[in-house]
Structure formats: C-alpha cells, structure tokens
Design a protein that fits this description.
- A 6-stranded mixed beta barrel has the order 4-5-10-7-9-8. The chain has a two-stranded antiparallel sheet with strand order 2-3.
- The longest helix has 44 residues.
- By secondary structure, the protein is α+β, with helices and mostly antiparallel strands.
C-alpha cells in the first residue's frame, strides 16, 4: 500500500474522532507554546541586560579601595583611603590600554531649591566620566578642566532631580541649588536613561568636579574610586592587569602582599549575569518541556485506545493482504499527524503569547528561530517515539485473533 493511501486512511481515522484528537494534541500544544514563550522571556532578559551593560559602558573598569584593616577590623569601602589622586594620574600617564579615566568621590544628602528638596547623591568626577559611563549632556554644557582646577561650585543634574526640584517645568540651567548648605550653580542637564534591569534610577544623580566634592563637600584628600575605559572590550583583561601592576607599584606592595584595592570590569559583570540568565532560561525550558513529555504520554495512551478499538479493522485489512509494515505505518502516521498539527498550533500560540507578555507585562522578549525549530522538532520526535510502540503492537496482531476480537 502506497504512502498516499496510508495518509488518507490516517486522516479519515482522525476525522472520525476530532474531539479526542484535539484533546490528545492539547498536551503537545501547551508544551510547544510553553517552551517557546519561556525561552523568549529568558532570551529577552539576557538581551536587555546586555544592552543596559553596553549603555553603561561595556569597556568600563571600576577600581575601588580594598583590604584595609585597622586593629584587625576590615573597614567600609567609603572610609578606605588606599586610592590617591597620584594613582589616578599614574593610570592616565602610564596605562596604554586605557582610553579614558576618571576619579570618583560622592556624597549623599538633600538638594534644596526654594521650597523644594530631594535626596540624591553628588558625584565628583572628571570630564572622562561622561565617555566611560555613556552619559550625555542634554541642555547647557559640561564643566571644564578649569572648573576642576578651581574647584568650581557648578553641577549637572539628572532628570529625576530636575523634576523634583523644578516641578513646574522651570528651566534649571543657571539656577543655584544648595547641597549641605553649599550653593551649586546648575550649568547643564543630562540625557534621561531611565531605570536599569536592577531597578536603579539612572537619572537620580548630580555631577560636579571631583575637586569640588573633595575639598568643599567631603574635605578629604583621597578618592573613593576610579573609573576607566579600555580601548576595546577585547582589551579589558589586559587593561585590568596593567592597572594592577601600576597600583601595586604605586603602593609599594611586595609580591607576597595582597592588593589593597579591587578591580571589577563590566565584562566580568556581563559574564556573571549572562550565565545566570542562561541557567534560568534552561530551567524554564525544562519545566515547560515536561508538558511535551506529558503530551507524548497522551499520544501513546490514545494510540493504545485506538488500536484496541480498531482491532477487528486491523484483522480485516491484514486478511485481505495488508502487511505488518502497512499497519505500522498507518498508526505511526496518525501519531505523527497529531504531534505535528499540535506542534504547529503550539508554535503559533507560543509566538502570540510572547508578544502578549511583551505588550501587557512589558517584559522584554526575544524569539530566537532555534527555539521554534527545536520545539517543533522535539514534538515531531515525541510523536514518533510515543506512537511507535502502539503501532508496533498493532502490526504484530494475528489476523484470525483480530477478526474474532469482540
């Protein structure tokens, strides 16, 4: 018997039990749709994190003081004084894999303008900080090197600070705000960046010359951290090694001494977050894949029922010349049709669900072609695997016993 006739017989058999066939498909439909949706959510989160890290500066290297103990007690990072301005200057002068570098000191407190006040952080930085953190000036201008040298009381404000201090939409440029009773003139506003994936408001900041924050706000001579940017992302590791050598030399550390500073890179952070999201994606896909397994068991169950119900039909067909391979092929085609049809419907629902999640919940989603292909392939294999055994049992029936079956 040729394949076309077997295909028609299989379609006719499924058509005679439409509702039962649909219920059998339901497990496959839910399984495929779940896998596609879960993978889309996982990959969307991964892409979102990578995009935000890139916006923050994918080549960024962060240097913080560390390993400073007094009386056997490790100090807080804010009170450590192992980083000096000479360290920053040495990195600028000696590091060959660095394209930009900025010291950083910060102080938190209340910003006041008229009757309005808002808690935020003043970040003391240099001009290079803007390039390192991918921050741009929206209106006004950036402070100059002369402002840094003279410790000028000028600043740039983010959108969140602007909205809270100037709720009536007043232009903040040129206005004087107070921070810890110290007046600062606003010379520019920053381009809004919104919230990052960790829920931090990237617009809740105020930028000022680092010398101003050092001398006029904190009254300190050390710096709290250094931000740098490698020439390219590929050179981040070399840049980190180079900075380590420079700082160890500056601090006169012996080979046996531990670093009294710590260096972290965005590449390291990106790798950690990516591995975490990959693990979560695999976990979600595995949970969703259980539905496919359940759907496959459903196919096997229904095929067993179908073989039992049609035992006499099988006997009659075999008695008029149908071979075992024909019976096997017929029932296998039925199982594959159920799984493929369920898979196609599942793909459509899975893609639709992904867009629904994105539109309604505003979760980032990214549908990769491999997830659709993989889900469809798995459901097809499921149909063959779980449909094979019942079909094999049907092909091995004795024609005489099958005809006599009640």
């Amino acid at each position: 018997m040729n394949f076309t006739n077997l295909f028609k017989i299989a379609l006719r058999a499924l058509g005679n039990n439409k509702f039962r066939g649909f219920l059998t498909m339901l497990g496959i439909i839910i399984g495929v749709a779940s896998v596609i949706t879960m993978l889309a959510i996982g990959q969307g989160s991964k892409k979102s994190i990578q995009s935000e890290i890139s916006e923050m500066g994918s080549n960024m290297i962060m240097i913080h003081p560390g390993n400073m103990e007094r009386g056997g007690v490790r100090q807080e990072a804010s009170s450590m004084q192992t980083l000096k301005l000479t360290d920053y200057q040495s990195i600028v002068n000696k590091a060959s894999y660095i394209s930009a570098c900025s010291p950083s000191v910060n102080s938190s407190g209340q910003f006041i303008y008229g009757a309005n006040n808002f808690p935020s952080t003043m970040n003391g930085i240099s001009e290079d900080y803007m390039e390192i953190r991918k921050i741009s000036v929206k209106d006004g201008e950036m402070f100059t090197e002369q402002d840094i040298l003279s410790s000028a009381k000028v600043c740039l404000v983010g959108k969140t600070v602007t909205d809270n201090l100037f709720p009536d939409g007043e232009n903040p440029i040129g206005k004087v705000i107070r921070f810890n009773k110290i007046p600062f003139k606003i010379i520019g506003t920053l381009v809004p960046k919104g919230y990052n994936s960790m829920g931090q408001d990237q617009d809740n900041l105020v930028l000022a010359p680092y010398t101003t924050v050092q001398k006029r706000v904190l009254a300190i001579t050390y710096i709290q951290s250094i931000y740098a940017s490698a020439i390219t992302e590929a050179m981040t590791e070399k840049a980190t090694e180079e900075i380590t050598e420079i700082l160890r030399s500056n601090h006169k550390l012996k080979e046996t001494d531990e670093d009294d500073f710590s260096i972290r890179s965005q590449e390291e952070l990106s790798s950690m977050l990516t591995s975490t999201t990959d693990m979560m994606t695999i976990l979600l896909a595995c949970i969703a894949g259980i539905s496919l397994l359940v759907g496959g068991i459903g196919i096997m169950n229904i095929m067993y029922v179908s073989v039992t119900e049609r035992t006499r039909e099988i006997g009659l067909r075999m008695s008029v010349g149908a071979r075992g391979i024909d019976i096997l092929s017929q029932f296998l085609i039925e199982a594959i049709l159920i799984s493929i049809t369920g898979g196609l419907i599942g793909v459509v629902i899975g893609i639709g669900s992904s867009f629904f999640v994105n539109a309604v919940l505003s979760w980032p989603v990214y549908i990769q072609p491999y997830s659709v292909i993989l889900s469809f392939a798995v459901c097809t294999i499921t149909g063959i695997f779980f449909g094979w055994y019942p079909a094999k049992k049907a092909s091995e029936l004795d024609p005489i016993d099958a005809i006599r079956y009640e």
